[in-house]
Specification:
Length: about 220
């Protein structure tokens, strides 16, 4: 096997193995918040915990996005990624505690199905989705504008449409980031395996949040 191909194979393997560990760890934390009644009751009485975890997630995401030297330096990159995964898992668990357990599990299953389907399509497709960065950025700002509209006009129909739009957007982002890893016109360097893993993880987690909101609204 040529050295370049071997390096690429190791890069992809490292990204998806790390991603799998992150997702399993996150699902485990969510299940703890759903089925450990003492923990669930505590979270429902302690609203500050969710907001604190959101703040920690945001700070760590900005830190890892801006500090390229940390992302490439072992073991600092894995420590930062581990802390981010822990904070994200605790945040999701505290949010999931407010929803019915059955709806959360349906959202987990739907996220797994959509993520697998989009990743498989990105691997097999001859279309280069990395050229669509501008379109995704415009769609992202449209979603933010629509969120502000939902805050003003309180309508369940608008909430459902907003959740659906967010689901579509982050499904497309998953396609985009998968092809960045596999190599389109624009691609991520093999040295940035932690950043690549972070991108996919954030895409899947955000997709889960929108699907959870969508399923809960349709179920209510």
């Amino acid at each position: 096997m040529p050295p370049q191909v071997f390096a690429f194979t190791c890069f992809v393997r490292k990204v998806y193995l790390t991603l799998m560990i992150q997702l399993l760890f996150t699902v485990g934390i969510i299940c703890a918040f759903l089925y450990w009644n003492t923990l669930r009751s505590w979270v429902l009485r302690t609203s500050w915990f969710s907001y604190t975890m959101m703040s920690v997630v945001l700070v760590l995401a900005i830190f890892m996005s801006c500090c390229g030297s940390v992302r490439r330096r072992v073991p600092l990159n894995f420590i930062a990624l581990g802390l981010f995964t822990l904070a994200e898992g605790l945040m999701l668990g505290s949010v999931a505690a407010y929803f019915d357990a059955e709806v959360v599990l349906w959202a987990v299953g739907a996220t797994a199905f959509v993520s697998f389907s989009m990743s498989l399509f990105a691997m097999q497709s001859k279309w280069d989705f990395t050229l669509g960065a501008g379109f995704l950025w415009a769609l992202c700002w449209s979603l933010i504008s629509f969120a502000l509209l939902c805050a003003i006009i309180r309508s369940q129909f608008l909430y459902i449409f907003y959740s659906f739009l967010g689901t579509v957007l982050f499904s497309l982002y998953l396609l985009f980031d998968t092809q960045l890893i596999l190599g389109g016109k624009y691609e991520i360097s093999p040295e940035e395996y932690v950043f690549a893993t972070l991108n996919l993880y954030v895409d899947i987690i955000t997709l889960f949040i929108f699907l959870l909101q969508l399923l809960n609204l349709c179920n209510s």
